[in-house]
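so my prof wants the structure for this chain in the tokens format not the other one, which i didnt know existed until like an hour ago. anyway here's the sequence
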Amino acid sequence: MNARGSPREQSGPSPLLGLLLAVVGATVAGVATAGWANSALDLPVSQHVISLFAPRQAERALVGATPGPAEAPSCAPGQISPSQLFSGLRDAIGETFGQPLECPHVDPSTGDTLQRTSTGLAIYRARSHTPTFTDGYHRWAKDARGVVAWEGHALDPPE
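here's what i got, hopefully its the right format
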């Protein structure tokens, strides 16, 4: 009420809007500060907060994860054809698989068969006999359940 006994009229934005803007501003400032602090320190909490707002992407590039021009693979006679190892997975995920850039070759440390493509890396897991593909962060596999998709650095599909 004012001095004349009539109700007060409010001018300008409501206090609720001001409070909402203050909370949003503090949240943005906190996330930015956490990102800055995390660049110098290992703060798991800030990493979690930042991951809620940051786009998902590969933390490290994988061999074959950078798209490039497709070149015809030149496989020696007797090598396994790319279509035989990865055909089911390639058919299932389509253009995501890309075009082969090299012949499949065995990684001597794991026994897995690798093949770079124009969009990523195809991996035939020797232990599980499972064809997988990654673009560097997103992953696909074809196993007894069908096509399985997941994200992250785990080479094998989730159980």
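also thought this was worth mentioning. Helices lie at 15-40, 44-53, 82-93.
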